Amino acid sequence: MKNDYQGCSVRCPQRTGLREPAGRSAETADATALNRVSVRTMILAVSGFLISVATASAHEAGPADFNELRYWWAFDPGIVIPILLSGILYAIGVVRLRRVNKQVMGGLEVACFFAGWLVLIIALVSPLHPWGSVLFSAHMTQHELLMLVAAPLLVLGRPMIPFLWAFPKTTARRLSTWTKATAWQRFWRAISAPFVAWLIHAIVLWGWHVPFLFQATLESEWVHAAQHASFFGFALLFWWSILHGRERAAGSGAAVLYLFTTALHSSLLGALLTFAGTVWYPIYHGTTLSWGLSPLEDQQLGGLIMWVPAGVVYIVGALALFAGWLRESGARATNFEARSGSALGTAHATASR
Hints:
Blueprint lengths: L30 H26 L9 H4 L7 H24 L6 H18 L3 H4 L4 H21 L3 H7 L2 H10 L3 H10 L2 H14 L3 H7 L3 H23 L5 H4 L1 H22 L19 H58 L1
């Protein structure tokens, strides 16, 4: 079957199982580089998307009780259209990839992407979004969904290659060209290193919870845009760096350390919010009472959400990666022993002659 994307030089990584069709091998020498290009392009696009999301939703008074809450769906074009387009592009890309090889983009990867896609809808389109303007605990729930559920699921869905395959081949070529600049390559290698991504993620998390900055997100659409873009964008960077990054932290065991330490420092922030004797964010005064909570109780509930459920997600992820690391280490040890035994047997056979 003739491939309409021969000039695009796009293929999935080896672990996806995609094999090059005849006639394309000479044109895919830079496929790995373009894979990295697609990751960068996705992160930039998601950041722009979140800015449009936040600016499209004005901070109105918010729902006053559960009866009102069900009507506060945010069907703003700046939110709905980008989410729909991302789902459509992914679906088109997967279909085109599977025309080349039916084994590429397994069902688990596709399920992960669309699960993360649905979580984005819950966080940004459902009444949870305006609910966060009147309850700190709801705001915390929204942020945890973006950083701890949507981001890793989208990364596990490997959307970068399907996104590129959804575009015309000339567009993919252009994306490849402008992102191959030396300055950009150096910048990307620097920020995508697992430790750097971990550090940025921690700074962003703690920084936005400084009281005057957090309160500013409820007073300014642009500040709120920056908060959502940084939370989600750097969460994507963090999860990608430890799961699929250049140094493959997930295969070295370092990812376990990064996730455990993230669980520790985020749980510490949650504990500080929970046990604080004063309200950190006075902007919520006057909006929590109709929900049966005092501002301090609302803050304590938000701290618990960050402390317990979020900590559990990081720890479960770390344990899963630890189990995978042990399996890989065991497999490497078995292979080494087999090679050593074979070499020893050959040496004995040679000596006996």
